[in-house]
Amino acid sequence: MSRRVRMGVLAAGLLATAALFVTAFLDMPHFGGAWHPYGDRAVQASVNRRTANTVSAVNFDQRGFDTLGEESILFSSVLGTVVLLRQARDERTRAPRPGPVPAALRRYGLVALPATLLIGLYVIAHGQLSPGGGFQGGVVVATALHLLYIAVDYPALERIRPLGLYEVGDAVGEAAYVVLGLAGLLAGSAYLANVLPFGTFNTLSSGGTVPLLNAAVGLEVASAVVVLLARFLVQALEIEGGDGEKGQAA
Length: 250
Prior knowledge:
- By secondary structure, the chain is mainly α.
- Helix 4 runs antiparallel to helix 8.
- Strand 2 (237-240) and strand 3 form a beta hairpin.
- The chain has nine helices and three strands, in the order H-H-H-H-E-H-H-H-H-H-E-E.
- Strands 1-3-2 form a three-stranded mixed beta sheet, with no helix packed on it.
């Protein structure tokens, strides 16, 4: 395919996309008006399913299939990173030398770690009730663990971060979301349909499948971020020239 043909195909795609955007924009409600058809429907559906956080109701109920795609993108990214950054035959592992940590930073990190971890778990557990959820809480949990790396040293982080366990957690979180979607099919409805009892509004047991899907995402995201950071942290490469090039991974 010539360059001219490629540019023509690209231009046609861009024009079609622009036309769709313009059409959608012209049919949107006016800014500041009283007519909000999309928001009103989303809020009403959230209340009907006893989910206090409308954003979580949209993510894990009204468009739960889209969220499965987003989670799968992260899972695939982690899988690709593990494959691409695995230790090559011409690389050898070198134990890192711990550097001095200021006493104030050490105290702050050791105090902030449990508090940050608790906040992350709280955000995941209350995702159907308040702002946050599995994606946000999972990142906070992974960040909390790495405060030990900042406040102490890398070996201390390794002791509480068995990579094999987190790789399993990443896969389990992804699989749990997929399997939970089958509940809708078993109940005679659509895949990922919210078919569980909705419970009492504004309680931890409310929302039907929403808190379960939210917890699955929290497990997957927290494990995925830990694995990603671990793979990049060990990629301090030092190339040595000579008759044959050698790479050292620290």
